[in-house]
Amino acid sequence: MTTLAKTKPKLALYWAASCGGCEIAVHDIKEKILDVDAAFEIVFWPVAVDFKVKDVEALEDGEIDLCLFNGAIRNSDNEYMAGLLRRKAKILVAFGSCACDGCIPALSNTTSRAATFDWVYRDSPSTVNPDDVRPQEETEVPVGTLRLPTFWERVCTLGQVVDVDYFVPGCPPQAHQIWAVLEAVIDILEHGKPLPPRGSVLGAGDRTCCDECPRTREEKKISRFVRPHEIIADPTKCLLDQGIVCMGPATRSGCGALCVSVGMPCRGCYGPAPNSKDQGTKMISALASVIDSNDPDEIDRILGGIVDPVGTFYRFSMASATPAGLSRLAGRDREALQERTS
Amino acid sequence: MVTTAEERAPVPTSEGTWQPKIVAFLCNWCSYTGADLAGISRIQWDPSVAIVRVMCSGRMDPTFVVKAFELGADGVIIAGCHPGDCHYQEGNYKALRRVHLLRRLLDGFGIDPKRLRLAWVSASEGDRWAETADEMTRQIRALGPMKVGS
Lengths: 342, 150
Fold this sequence. Notes:
The complex is a heterodimer of chains A (342) and B (150). By secondary structure, chain A is an alpha/beta fold. Chain A has helices at 21-27, 32-39, 53-57, 76-88, 97-101, 113-123, 175-191, 209-212, 258-261, 279-289, 296-303, 309-313, 322-329, 331-341; strands spanning 10-15, 41-44, 64-70, 73-75, 89-95, 138-141, 144-147, 151-156, 166-168. In chain A, the strands form three sheets. A five-stranded parallel sheet of chain A has the order 2-1-3-5-9, with helices on both faces. A two-stranded antiparallel sheet of chain A has the order 4-8. In chain A, strand 6 (138-141) and strand 7 (144-147) form a beta hairpin. Chain B has one domain: Lumazine/riboflavin synthase (Rossmann fold, 3-Layer(aba) Sandwich). The mean pLDDT of chain B is 88. Chains A and B meet through helix 10, helix 11, helix 12, helix 13 and helix 14 of A and helix 3 and helix 4 of B.
């Protein structure tokens, strides 16, 4: 019989194509981070702890108990790390909006890899690159060959490249929700509580953002859409009632209605509402119903007030959006449209 | 991993034999009855149009439309009662507004908005239904298949 002390469950955190906000959000649990350290043995966390990829590669398959993976899958390195951590981790969690639905990096799915590179390395006003230098996947230098990961044509969610056990949405997930998830995992690992069904969304509500919103809703009749800076909004009334496009009706609850409580409309970071797959089309459904006109021309005039419907309705869910998949199919239409407009 | 509709979508036919696939969502009270009348009256219309009956054009969630496209439709028709005649008072007006906004969204994604058509067809307008179906088929044939290379 072994006399070893009970080993702590192993925890890994990783970031792929992300801004780092999810990592900061983990630190937002403040002194409870010490409880995390007490409960888990951290084996990989590039932002905070100095372990290397080779340390992870050296672990047994399934040796990590919990991996919180944030960031979308944008290039071959992200894909490699996703595959590696999937093999090494018993429970893989898509942590944050990028890993769940693509988030801001996936907004580039409306365009191509070539167009993205042209903008970044040639056309943007802040770029000075007279020799049109572009990143190469392989570069010969005196000391050998330098390699960069392959940049993909489109951004994928974590779930589109590997099997994911649980999803924690949010941009970033809110600290109290992160703690709730970690606490639940500790309970499961230490006290043998049953795991939630695979594929569940954790650390979020099962209603919409509107359900948590403190503002007063009335019968909606919208005759003009405005952007938040164009009016001084009534602090007690529903923002959508006042003509500001608020993603609340199509967004999962769980954040505690943070943005709407301080006068900004919901941007939709907690992803599609429960039982809906596509956030944008649900938003169209909700928004169009409350437009105060039955006249086609007047409807068009009112809808003209919505600047960039694609980016507004799919700001956080472009990688999993159905029309974005269609867009890839409809290359032919796009070419035809360009011909007509040029 | 989740099986996507793309994987389930039927294999496109080879070049030259392409036939458009058009899904038409018809409201129970006017347009479906109108199409039924067209059938009873032996009016011919293009067989590329497949009809799905819904209770009201206002039942048409934009999600259904993008789902139809995802599953391989080249065009979608939504047909309901004439303005003012909706069995549920104002379902067709909701459909009208949704279609206008959805067209903007499709356009933003590089999908030709003409692939989505809204029509008003009453229960007595069998001929109008046949015209709508034929016109849409002509338009989609002109636009070509939705999928690249199919």
